[in-house]
Records
---
Amino acid sequence: MTQKIGIVTGGGDCPGLNAVIRAIVKAGAIYGWECMGIHGGFDGLLTPVQAIPLELKDMDGLLIRGGTILGSANSGQFSAKTGHGEPRQVPQKILNQAKANFDGLNLCAMVAIGGDGTLTIAQQMFEMGFPVVGVPKTIDNDLDATQMTFGFDTAVACAVDALDRLHSTAQSHNRVMVLEVMGRYAGWIASYAGLAGGADVILIPEVKFNYDSIQKKIQAREAEGKHFTIVIVAEGATLEGQGFVTSNKTGKDREARLGGIGHMVAQEIEERTKKETRCVVLGHLQRGGQPTQWDRQLCTRFGVHAFQMIAKAQFGMMVALKENGMMGPVTLKDAINKIRRVDPAGELVMTARALGISFGDEPA
Ligand code: F6P
C-alpha cells in the first residue's frame, strides 16, 4: 500500500511555508510516498475533513510563494496556547475525532509546520497516537530547540528595508522615526534589523526601557549635530514597571493581540524632545511576500529532513538546525514551551552597545 503523509500548517503564517511543503512532497515522491494537504490548520482534520492530495505538479512555483497553500489558523478547536506558560489541553473528544479522520484518510504520518503553539498541539497529538514530525516556523525566531526558525530572515529583510527608507525621510525632515516590528517574547527581529539598518535605539522585550534614557540618546545626537533619530521597537517591548501594550480586540481563546507600543513611544518622545516624531507599524508586511534565499534553503532542508525522519519512523520529533549548522532531530517535548530570547548580556546586544546604540535602559 502507498505510504501517505498529511501536511498541516498552523499558527500565524510566514514566508517559506510553501517551500517546506514542496520539499516534503518532492522528497517523498522520489520514494513513491504520497502527500495530502490538511486545510485550515488542524481543524481541517475535523468532520467535514478538509484535505486534498498534493501532486508533484502542484509544487511548481511554491519555493518562492509567500503564505501557505494550505491556509492556517491560530484559533479554533485546536488552541493550546493563550500566552507563554502553561499550555491548554486540546479536548479529548476533538483529538479522537481528528484521529479517526486521520486514519480514514489512510495517513501513516503527519508533518506539523508551526511555532510553539502548533508544536504544543502536535505533541499532544503524538501522545494520543498520531505519528507526527514537527518543523519549526516563526518570524519571531523564538524557539529554543533550533538555532533558527524559518521566516525570520525574511522578516528581518523586510524590517531592514523599512529602516533604510525611514532613514532618508528622517534625515530630510530632522525627525525621529519609530518603527514597530513583531517580536512578542523575543527581540530578535528588532535586534538584527536594528543592527543591519543602523537604528540608534533598539527596544526589545528582554530589556525593560525608560524614557529618560531614550531622551538622553536623542539629545546627545542633537548635540553632535545629528538632527534625526531612528528607533526600532519590538511589539513585546515593555516600559519599566509595565506590561505588554495590547489591542483591546483580544479573544479569550488566543494570545493577546499586541500592538501600540510604537505610537506610545513616539508620542512620549515628541512631548519630551519637542522633535517631530512619526511612528510606522510594520505589522503583517513582515509575514508576507517571497522568502529570502536563506529561508528558501532552510525550508528546503527542513522539509527534506522531516520526510527522512518520517521514513525512519522518528515520530514525536521536530527537525532542528543544530549548533554545528546541520539538521537533526529533537523531541517535540524538548522543543515546546522553551522560548529563545536575546541575551541582554550577550554578544549581539554588546556589539550594538559598543556602537553607542541605546536599549533604553542606560542611566539618564
Ligand atoms: O508569532 C508570530 C507573530 O508574528 C507575533 O510576533 C505576533 O504577535 C503574532 O504573530 C500576530 O499574529 P496574528 O496577528 O496573526 O494574530
---
Amino acid sequence: MADNNLIRPDDNIQIPVHVGVIMDGNGRWAKKRGLPRKFGHREGAKNFRTITRHAKSVGVKYITFYAFSTENWKRPKDEVDAIMELFEKYLDEVRDFIDENIRVRFIGDRSGLKETLQRKMASVEEDSKDFDSMTLVLAINYGGRDEICHSVRKIARMVKDGELQPEDITRDLIEKNLYTEEIPPLDLVIRPSGEQRLSNFMIWQAAYAEFYYTNILWPDFRSEDFDRAVIAYSERNRRFGGI
Ligand code: IPE
Ligand code: IPE
Ligand code: MG
C-alpha cells in the first residue's frame, strides 16, 4: 500500500538494480500458528507477488526470489509435493505480471521438474520476453554450485568440440553460461527469518552483494521491510576492493 512506503520518489536513495530475496521462514510461520508447514508456504507464495509489485514501484529493475533449492528435495515428500503444487497454481497467476510490463524468467535445473510445470515456465517466459519495466526471476530447483557446474560443463563441451581453447575460458565466459546470462550481478540480498547464510543462493552473482538480514519470517515480511532493506543498502559504502 502506497501509504506504508518508507521511500518517497524525491528521496535521495540509491536503489539497488538487482535484489535477491531468500524467502525463508515459511515453516516456522506455520508452526507458530499450530498449522502444517504447507500453510506457511501458501502464505509465503502470496507475499512474493506483493513484494514484486512493491519492488517495481520503488524502481528496482531485477528481483530474484529463491523459491526452491536443489537441497530442498531432502524434505518430506508431502511437503515437496505441496510446494510443487503451489508453483503450478502461482505460475498461472504470475501471468498477471505480463500486463504490468514485467518480464518473467526462471533459473535452476528445470529437467528435475514435472513436465507440466516446465511447459508453463517456458510459456510465461516466452510471452513476457518483450517486457522491460522490471525482470522477475524465480529460482526453482536452483543451486549456486549446480549452476556453476552446468556452466563449466557447457564450456567443456565447446573445448572438446574444438570450438574453444582452455585459454579462452574467462570470467565473462563462465558468467555468460550461467542460468542468469545477461542478468546483472546482485546488489542486495535480503534474507528474512533470522538465518544469516546464503544456502547456495547465487554464490557467483552475490560476490559483491550487500546483505540484509531480519528476524521477520517471510510470510510477515511487508513492503515497509523491503524499504528498510533498501534504505540500509543505500547507506552502505561499496568499495569493490578499492578504497
Ligand atoms: C522457505 O521456508 C521455503 C522453502 C525453502 C521452500 P522454510 O520452509 O525453509 O521455512 P523454515 O526455515 O522451516 O521456517
Ligand atoms: C533456503 O532456505 C532456500 C529457499 C528459501 C528456497 P532453506 O530453509 O532451505 O535453507 P537452510 O536449510 O536453512 O540453510
Ligand atoms: Mg528454511
